[in-house]
């Protein structure tokens, strides 16, 4: 079965004129559930997040007849567990998975671990929305007094991060810049015919969308990415150009409701 799938994928790679790329934000994490800023804190998936990886992400990918030759993910467990669940559901656990710290969520600095509504009560909604969505807005740097400081500094999953690049806080702009070297690898694989899934985080998906579609700083500030909803692009393999706008896979009403939930400060 595995050999058959491998040969079929090689043949289809050889014949294809266009290729699709799927971007995905991981399932709901325990911090998403508590409406807390998470960033580089390594929060696990919530129970609902695990279920959504199966019942929303994997199901929609299967319904769209998508298969993968490679998955790119971050070094954070919420993205890695989502990847494992999806590949298992798709009976594709043999697919190689490459994890990269450059695909980690934006480091939310000293907001890490705090509830978004509480931060909004303290600093005002406009300031919190500016930290969340303005392209160049930097949250305050994390300090050793933050309860998650040492857990982040000492997380062995970040051992590949060069010491001089280990962030204390990041704007979306900084996050986008560090994602780009991996985007070059992803694009190369995709234009060589590999069917690629990128299972990552809200800000990283937005950074990739901004880059792929050439969106302005203003336009990307209005884009919000729900958990576990696959975003699909199609590219011309010869020219590398995008041939269709991004499409979401899934129920439009569900996607609309979840997108609005992500955009709001929440409770
Ligand atoms: O860690 C986070 O993103 P993730 O859940 O995609 O990993 C952020 O806390 C999401 O918050 P935001 O939607 O205010 O950027």
Automatic annotation (TrEMBL):
Site label Transition state stabilizer, positions: 201
UniProt xrefs under Pfam families: His_Phos_1 (PF00300)
Positions of the catalytic residues: 26, 105
GO BP, one annotated term: glycolytic process
GO molecular function, one term: phosphoglycerate mutase activity
Coiled coil regions in record: none
Keyword Metal-binding: no
UniProt xrefs under CDD domains: HP_PGM_like (cd07067)
Catalytically driven reaction(s): (2R)-2-phosphoglycerate = (2R)-3-phosphoglycerate; (2R)-3-phospho-glyceroyl phosphate = (2R)-2,3-bisphosphoglycerate + H(+)
EC number(s) stated in the UniProt entry for this protein: 5.4.2.11, 5.4.2.4
SMART domains (UniProt xref): PGAM (SM00855)
UniProt cross-references to HAMAP family, sorted A to Z: PGAM_GpmA (MF_01039)
Full protein name: Phosphoglycerate mutase
Native source organism of the sequence: Drosophila lebanonensis (Fruit fly)
